[in-house]
Design brief:
By secondary structure, the protein is mostly helical. It is 50% helix and 4% strand. It is built from 7 helices and 2 strands, in the order ααααααββα.
Amino acid sequence: MAGFRSLARQVRDPRCDLALRRYSLRKCLERFAPYGHRATWDHLCARAGFDPEDRSVDPVRLVAALDELEEARAVWLAYEREFAKRRRREKHDGLRRPGSVDDWHRLTWGGFGVAWCDDPRVHPREPLAEVLRRLIAALEREPGTVCPVCRGERLVWRHDLDHEPSAGPVCADCGILVPRPVLTPGALADSRRVRQLVSA
């Protein structure tokens, strides 16, 4: 099974058939897809300027989409390295019980669904790397009351998400499932009340 880097080489290789280059970009999303596979694909297509169903994409656009994905992956891998170092230090110091950020991180190891978007057509418009930087910054500071990506205040509790956890606060503005550790208990409670009002 090919890894992310070998798939990325195929996307860039002008000797490869165009269909293989497009397929390789899609396969990259099996290794790293911050919004989930379908929403990340929709995002990359929109940002690079080609239709998600286009089978003969301009190679320059394919590479532009790959460039954005690789930059975001570099941001996430750097965070994972720092996370692993921190956990080693904590274990060395006797802190064996992981915190809520650690529980969340376990569900997103490798970068899949870091900023899960249940509706593949609703996702942040900013570059993926910027979205991940904002999310990481929120994980490293005290919890807040708004979406860490778009600063949206409309957080709605949703059930039956196609992700783990299968329920949680979703930003009504940018569409991400907001990690619970970045929100205060009050903000979480408010999002649950909004869900109850919407479903009433």
